[in-house]
Fold:
Amino acid sequence: MEKKSAIVQNLILLSIPTMLEQIMSTLLQYVDTAMVGHLGEEATAAVSTTATIGWMVGSLQYAVGIALLSLMSQAVGRGDEGEVKLLASQAVYLTIGVAIILGGVSVILAPFIPVWMGSAPDVRGPATTYFVIISLPMLFRASTTIFGATIRATLDTKTPMYVNMGANVVNVVLDYLFIYVFHMGVTGAAIATAITHIVAGSSMFLVFRKKQKLHFDWKDLRWDKPAMKKIRGIALPSMATDLTATLGYVVFAGMVSGMGTTTFAAHSIAVEAETLFYLPGYGLRTATSALTGVSIGEENLKKLKIVMRSSIVITILLMTLSGVALYFVAHPMMQLFTNSDAVVDLGAQMLRLVAFTEPFFGLMVVCQGLFYGMGRTKNVLFVEAFSMWGIRILFTFLVTHVWHLGLRQVWYCMMADNICKACLLAATLFILWKRKKMVSIQQTASG
Structure:
């Protein structure tokens, strides 16, 4: 029986690479955004217009990754090497299928997305070009996400970190070349991003094939209906969750974009600037999911309890410190991305507001990680649907179209949504624990 200190130490050690990976990726993305931002507000709007749709496009591959992480980590906990390799083989089919579907749909819909988002006419052309270019290497984007999830399921979070951090360094270098040396503007930023996806996806696939726990012979590659059924049972609710959320983000961003270019630029940049400060929660979420799955595979209730409590406490502590930091650096953070004083001042005000809710955001994220590790993606879906559409979207509509208030009130709606999700997920987790519905593999797979 593992000691509590050993379990907590393992949780932290697994979390650190993911945190570093996401922090580095976000810092480099800041550089990317700053490079585009210094081209002007129109360039920022062109890239930001399709950002939310990009999240939606990624929902299918992300959902597949969650399902594989849950099932494979449980198989690792049981010591079932055959099941791990079988699921790894299914990941190949899923990566190709996801890429064909998402790539095709993205390219077809690209000209219509800026119109749906309510962007200004002079922004629509560059936004369409940007989205088409970054959608073309969809196979490599899916490879990075799905194969990365299978690697993390084996409790290896370091290797995906190295791959993604390396790719992001490449992205910054290419951004500088295409934007400033070749003077290609937004199109150059898109080309740099596309090449980066190719580098990351190819590298992740090579790691996937060399990983001993995941290695299978190509002659054994076959479509396995029972395995796919298990994956589908977890992935579909997860995908529905992401679609529910990202559709909400699309509507939410669309309502904000109608408030004017300056307001939308301030909103978009502030949202991206905040990203760095909630990454500790996302870093812990991946490790929490993997260890939760392993604990369930081992049918180790004590270990699962320690993972739950430790991940929640550590995440809330880290996110509290993160919120304090965000409050004091809000203005300098905005200045990194734009030269517009109006955008900087308005965005900094929003960041100081949201800083107070960072602990709730952390609680929401780590609870999601626990549910994902259990395979209980339906619970997350129900909470997301209720809170996103019943709180954020409904009240943002009232704020923008009925009461005609400002961006501050819009962000109040966003903050209320995050607080509601955190409380509902935590309450659901507590109820499931009291009813002892967390240990059975059959229950979690069907839940």
Q: What stands out?
A: The radius of gyration is 21 Å. The mean pLDDT is 89. Residues 4-446 form one domain. The chain is about 85% helix and 0% strand.
